[in-house]
Amino acid sequence: MSGGSKDFYASMVLNSSCPDAQLPTAMGAPPKKGPQPYRSPCYSSASANPTAISKMTQPFSLPMSLQSPPVLPAHVPRPTVLIATAGHETVDGSKQPGKMYTHNPYASTCTAPPACPSQSTSMESSTFSSPYVTAKVPRTAAMTPPHSRCGSTFPVYAASEGSCCEAGALANMLEDQFLTVLGNIPSTAMSSRGRHLLFNVLRLQHMDKTQMIYDELLPQFNIVALDPHGCQVARTLIEYISTPQMEALVPYIDPQAIRQMATTTQHTRRVLQAIFERHKSDALMPIVEVVTSDCQRLSVTQQGCIAIIRIIEYAKPAQKRMLITALVPLLSTLAKNQFGNYVVQCILKNMDGYVSLKDLVGSFKGHWVELSCDKYSSNVMEKIVGMLKGGLRQRIVNELIFDAAHLQCLLQNSFGNYVLQAVIGSAVNQYEYGLIYDAVTPHLHTSPYGHRIEAKLKSRWDALYSKPTQKRTTPVDAAAK
Q1: pLDDT of 244 over the 80 cut
Q2: Residue 262 clears pLDDT 90, i.e. is over it
Q3: 200-211 as b/e, with b when 16 or more CB fall inside 10 Å?
Q4: Is there a domain that residue 216 lies in?
Q5: pLDDT at res. 146
Q6: pLDDT in tens, 78-127
Q7: Does residue 311 lie in a domain region?
Q8: pTM of structure
Q9: In the chain, what percentage of residues exceed pLDDT 70?
Q10: Which residues are within 8 A (CB) of 132 and not within 5 positions of it... i.e. 6 or more apart?
């Protein structure tokens, strides 16, 4: 009804009851609205009692049909009605129990709804605080398992009576999908969805299915191992096959494919890495021979240096010796490379029984000062200086410290001063320390790093010259008294 029709109807009522009364709007007063309890913080008793309206002194009164509906007081209990809000869905007990996606990535626990209607809790509540908030359902430990007990990062589904049957159905469905790709496994492995399918099949650890995948990938292993998707299937296959199966696979791996696997991406490199991490066999020697033949180029690439490091760490002793022997003459060149210096440091860590310190020092002969002042090779020099003893160490100290020109290079260089500190910190006895101290101290004021070198001299002096305090003996003349 429009505003004009309301005023007309009200004027007719007033004229019939009070002929002399005038409509307030006719006198310029704004029209009054009915009581609106949602705008006032508290409710009056008059609004709750409709009969009290007629007793109030007002300019006019409207019939009951035109008055606002009565408003219940706040203390009157109201029936609780489940109001569907955003993000909530009502659960219908008549629906068949099935999988419900209940994983909440923003919650600390994974909440599972009740499996059947009998487990649900009553939604009725005797108290009501707000008409826009639903009643809270108490959660038990069975309904809300901790997230740590889920044991998986996959979506969590509600438990139901048919969970075991569903697990079997999922396994059967996986097997059915696998059977549909038989005969086309290499191309399946080189696709995104096919890769995940083969992952799940291999993780079943069924020997027959693993053998089927192995048999089909064997002739095309080089192509699959270099594919962005297939390389991950190849790595997973290597992790699950036995060592005899790996030995049978080696002749199928092309030498060029080995070089590409070592340098293309981190995923292809992990295929080569998994071979030596999972299997120990002399039959892997052909792979080591290919890597050894191109070790210098591989050592200066980002992924190739890691491949060589992993072979040195995990290969059998004979394979490790072959690779280290080929790398020793190249150490001075590799030490100055941003990736090759990690290969040199790995050799220093795993050199026992494979290379002598004499051969190691000989590979750096005549390059000590140059390598000590380089950003990457200075790290190698620091480690070597701490390892050497006896005559080999004396040769290095003579070349670095007791040559005035070489000493000045170390004092003025931002990397060489760390090598000088390593020489001071590894002084073996007081005699050697005294010689180094006498050679270095007069030039400290010329070095921008003199305060660091002086602190290292002091700390080494404390380590070499500090002696445990001895008990005071009684003086001879004091005993005579």
Answers
A1: yes
A2: yes
A3: ebbeeeeeebbe
A4: no
A5: 40
A6: 554 444 444 444 444 444 544 444 444 444 444 444 444 444 443 444 44
A7: no
A8: 0.62
A9: 61
A10: 83, 85
* Number of C-beta neighbours around residue 288 at 10 A: 22
pLDDT digits (tens, 9 = 90+) for 340-390: 999 999 999 998 888 888 888 888 888 899 999 999 999 999 999 988 888
Tell me, what's the pLDDT at 409?
Answer: 95
Is residue 283 domain-resident? no
Three-state secondary structure along the chain? Answer: CCHHHHHHHHHHHHHHHCCCCCCHHHHCCCCCCCCCHHHCCCCCHHHHCHHHCCCCCCCCCCCHHHCCCCCCCCCCCCCCCCCCCCCCCCCCCCCCCCCCECCCCCCCECCCCCCCHHHCCCCCCCCCCCCCCCCCCCCCCCCCCEHHHCCCCCCCECCCCCHHHHHHHHHHHHHHHHHHCCCCHHHHHCCHHHHHHHHHHHHCCCHHHHHHHHHHHCCCHHHHHCCCCHHHHHHHHHHHCCHHHHHHHHHHCCHHHHHHHHHCCHHHHHHHHHHHHHCCCHHHHHHHHHHHHCHHHHHCCHHHHHHHHHHHHHCCHHHHHHHHHHHHHHHHHHCCCCCHHHHHHHHHHCCCCCCCHHHHHHHCCCCHHHHHCCCCHHHHHHHHHHHCCHHHHHHHHHHHCCCHHHHHHHHHCCCHHHHHHHHHHCCCCHHHHHHHHHHHHHHHHHCCCHHHHHHHHHHHHHHHHCCCCCCCCCCHHHHHC
| Res. 43 pLDDT band, cuts 50 70 90 | very low
* Within a domain: 348: no
Query: 278 falls in which pLDDT band (50, 70, 90)?
Result: very high
Instruction: Supply the range of the domain harboring residue 425.
Output: 359-464
Residue owning tokens 């791996």: 253
For the segment 197-202, the average pLDDT, to the nearest whole number, is 94
Number of domains in the chain: 1
**In whole angstroms, how far apart are CA 364 and each of 99, 369, 379?**
67, 10, 14
Burial category of 327 from C-beta neighbours within 10 Å (exposed 0-12, middle 13-18, buried 19 and up): buried
